[in-house]
Amino acid sequence: MNPIPGIAARMSTWLAALPFTKRSSIAPEDARRVHTFSNGVRIYDDHIIPAQRERYARNNVHEMEEEAIFLKLVTDMPVGSVYVDVGAAVGYYCILAKKYRPEIRVVAVEALARHRAYMAENFRLNGFEARDFTVIPEAISSVSGHLDFVDMNYSSFVNTSGKVRENASVEKVRAITLSELVGSQEAPIGLLQMDIQGEEVGVLAEFSRAMPDGGGIAQFLVGTHSRDIHVRCRKMLAGMGYRIIMDDPKPAHQPDGILAAVKH
């Protein structure tokens, strides 16, 4: 499979600017509070928003139901395969995957520059280096090109509708399709996790047309953002030959629905 044209150059430029060797502008890192989850993952406390803080006070993991199935899927990844986290935010699942399967290659896809900077801080906080991860500084969308990206912190999304609330923070980002992302990977994808704030139907629809057999992805873990989206995503995954092993549109302890699917 051939790399997406220009993606290596863009990644190299961005990686050179990562803050792995300099102090954060928020505060000196040795003076900042750190939140340690029950699983040992550590993130800087100033990356946490109030809704997350309340959730962590009840169950000290990021997403209780999703994490349980995530760990099973990571454990079941074929040897030599890749874990891809689409919408990686501050790097929680990337770090957790690397802690459980240190030998696997981890690819983090994150369009928001602020979150990529936080991710780099958290990688270093957990004892990792830049070379332990591949970070793609782009969005995943149903179409490729330079698109509007609405910055709503952990609810940020690619604006494909053209409708944005007044005073919203919007920036142009480069977007690629899921089929382009999958086609750029030299090794098979053992697990693709996706949390893209309501864009999952369009993204999976493009992917199912381009790669109706699933493109060699062994397992999917998709966060869904409404019951209708959940049902439509489940139908598309089943249509590509996946067996649904977790189907929960409204988990009790986290805001997003969960679909987990594996190849028959």
Structure keywords:
disordered N terminus; 7-stranded mixed sheet; 264 residues; alpha/beta; 4-stranded mixed sheet
Q: Helical proportion?
A: 25-40%
The ordered string of helix (H) and strand (E) elements is HEEHHEHEHEEEEEHEHEHEE
Strand content: 15-25%
Q: Rg to the nearest angstrom?
A: 17 Å
Report the count of strand segments. Answer: 13
What form results from the Cα inertia axes?
A: globular
Main sheet?
A: 7 strands, mixed
Measured between the Cα atoms of the first and last residue, the distance is: 23 Å
Overall pLDDT metric: 88
Number of helical segments? 8
Major sheet strand order: 5-4-3-10-11-13-12
The poorly predicted ranges are 1-5, 7-26
Q: Helices and strands: which structural class? A: alpha/beta
